[in-house]
Amino acid sequence: MFFSRAHKYGGKCALRSKSPAAAGQAAGKYRDISWAEAEGKVKDLAFGLISLGLKPGEKVGLLSENRPEWAYSDLAVLSIGCADVPLYPTDVPHQMEYILQDSGSAMVIVSTQEQLDKIVSIKPRLPALRKIIIMDPPEKISGADIVSFESVLKTGSGKAPEARGEFESRLNAAGKDDLASIIYTSGTTGPAKGVCLTHENFLSNCRSSLDLLPFDENDICLSFLPLSHVFERMASYYFTVYIGGIIAYAGSNESVARDLKEIRPTYACAVPRFFEKMYDNIIDSIAHSSENKKDVFEKSAALAKRYADARLNKLGTGPVLWLKYQFARAFIFSKIRSAVGGRIKFFISGGAPLSKELGEFFYSVGILIFEGYGLTETSPVVTVNTFNAFKFGSVGRPIRNTEVKIAPDGEILVSGPGVMKGYYKKEDATREVFDPDGRFRTGDIGYLDEEGFLHITDRKKDIIITAGGKNIAPQNIENLIKADSYIHEVVLHGDRRPYLTAVIVPNFDALKGLAMRQGIPYIKAEELIKHPRVLEFLTERIEQRQKDLPNYEKIRKFTLLENKLTVGGGEITPTLKVKRKVVAEKYKGIFDSMYQS
Questions:
Q1: Domain boundaries in the chain?
Q2: How far apart, in Å, are the Cα atoms of 189 and each of 82, 100, 371, 420, 514?
Q3: Top-level CATH class of 272-342+345-460?
Q4: Which one in 107, 342, 379, 579 has a CA-CA gap of 20 to 30 Å to 473?
Q5: Rounded distance between C-alpha atoms, residue 404 and residue 415, angstroms
Q6: How many contiguous H segments (helices) and E segments (strands) does the chain have?
Q7: pLDDT value of position 597
């Protein structure tokens, strides 16, 4: 796929990245990389890896932030009959050690000195690891087993004549069912498992996605989710290559807001937290506006909601409402759209459930978010909302050639060309996740509505059964409360307990704004969560959010936490999924105290 696109598009821009100062341009300026240049880098790197002795079928670890070298490394490894093993740059050494040891990786390509140090610290316990290749090398490299990315490119370029035959032979030998990557799942309930995905797993997802969403070679995607996650890798990277579009890499997590305005992408992939932050920023900005601007925005938002509700329910808007909405869209909401570049066709949301309320809000102001559903084991897309068929609160309909069934206990079962080969070196675990008919057991609970849209209610293993025997899906309630601009994170508790409790991480920026407006004194932000007026304020907002829930699904007591849940603290995975057992154990004393009175 890649080489055919490179041949077709040649001098057209394929990648766009911020160049370092040493590249002859000012640091922080985007530069274009053509398909021809990218092809040359991939081939030179492939020749260099062959020269270093990388054999067909061997595994290569890939530890880097999003940048062109990630793509070069991935494509070079795949083109010579090998498979790569992506690692999160946020992972700590012991997590990387497990993955590299389990996969038997022969080489690791890393981005920076920081990442190199992590690998060097665990290398003595990785007998299969022969070489470490670093993209941004220090002035002096110590150790014969560490080489620079540039030197491998130069070696490959210099040995092109003798390596080319071997390269062509391996490339031609590659088959659609060959292993392309081992992606280790986040592991919310134990050690990560290596998901074996083939070339066809990824390509089938690309083909089916293009059937449903309007893309072409003129589209540009801003890549900012980690490429080590299957969602970004397929939807932003492989799919953009497939359509011949442009991939622009965000400079960093902190620069995404600026990069959106500079790149002006036509689409981008994001997780719900991205949209939650956008919403929080909008509400915070309005809160600090004049009374007149607040009034105008609130009336415009109410008008937009009426218009959106009419459209979503397939009711006529009428000429007066239509005209008023067009005015609000052009003069009130245009700033929101310009903040994401001004030409976004739509965002694709995945990785976690998107609040129905949030989706409807952005739709009403002119930003469409298509929520999809999938897992690492399904490469990942199973269902997605589209222009012709979307329903907020659902994750869309199944993509082409993919079948979704609901088991008697509510578990979602999937079959199709995107489903993995299995877990690496774990035959028993592989057998366990397939039913007798060969369908993949997702572990998610959900249902298909009368129009064929899939709705996810929770993870099967996360279902809370109260002491009264009530089955409760915590994610639904958590998402309901997290939609509040003053709430950052919620984790429910209550399995075999008489009622639900929760630990809640507030949005401290929003609380600071509240304190300023209401004259609540504080020195440290953490003091706010103990202030009676803040507690009363948040209690009222949480109760309002829960007003339509049955009593047994309402949080009776909650405790505010001073610190966010973090990957480093072990409470969440790199893909921002809560490790409920870790949270329950870490805050056991707090949870117990909420059941004592």
A1: 2-174+215-266, 272-342+345-460, 463-593
A2: 30, 20, 25, 20, 38
A3: alpha beta
A4: 379
A5: 7
A6: 22, 26
A7: 64
Asked if 10 and 36 count as a contact pair (C-beta separation under 8 A), the reply is: yes
Torsional class of 401: left (φ above 0), alpha (ψ -120 to 50), beta (otherwise): left
Q: Which two tokens stand for residue 64?
A: 């880097």
Q: Which of the following CATH numbers is that of domain 2-174+215-266: 3.40.50.150, 3.40.50.12780, 3.60.20.10, 1.10.3720.10?
A: 3.40.50.12780
The whole-angstrom distance between residue 192's C-alpha and the CA centroid of its chain comes to 17
| Residues in CB range of 588: below 8 A, 6 or more apart | none
The pLDDT tens digits of the residues spanning 371-422 come to 999 999 999 999 999 999 999 999 999 999 999 999 999 999 999 999 999 9
Question: Which tokens in the block code for residue 255?
Answer: 């620069």
Dump pLDDT digits (tens) for 10-31: 999 999 999 754 444 444 789 9
Whole-angstrom distance, CA of residue 300 vs CA of residue 334: 12
Dihedral over alpha carbons 436, 438, 443, 446 (to 10 degrees) = -100
* Residue 307, CA distances (Å) to 102, 327, 359 in order: 54, 12, 14
CATH fit for domain 463-593, picks 3.30.300.30, 3.40.50.720, 3.40.50.970, 3.60.15.10? 3.30.300.30
Q: How far apart are CA 480 and CA 492, in angstroms?
A: 12
Both tokens assigned to 363: 């739709």
- pTM for the model stands at 0.85
Structure tokens at 292: 């007149």
What is the dihedral sign for C-alpha 590, 583, 475, 538?
A: positive
185: CB partners within 8 A, 6+ apart: 192, 193, 195, 376, 377
Residue 427 makes CB contacts below 8 A (sequence gap 6+) with: none
Contact yes or no for 45/152 (Cβ under 8 A): yes
- Integer-rounded Cα radius of gyration of the chain: 25
Q: Identify which of 4, 167, 143 has the alpha carbon closest to the alpha carbon of residue 76.
A: 167
The label of the residue with tokens 């670093």 reads 134
Which residue carries 């199973």 as its tokens?
Answer: 382
CA–CA separation, 328 vs 308, rounded Å?
13
Take residue 68 and report the two structure tokens written for it: 């062109």
Non-local (6+) Cβ contacts of 460 within 8 A are 409, 410, 411, 443, 444, 445
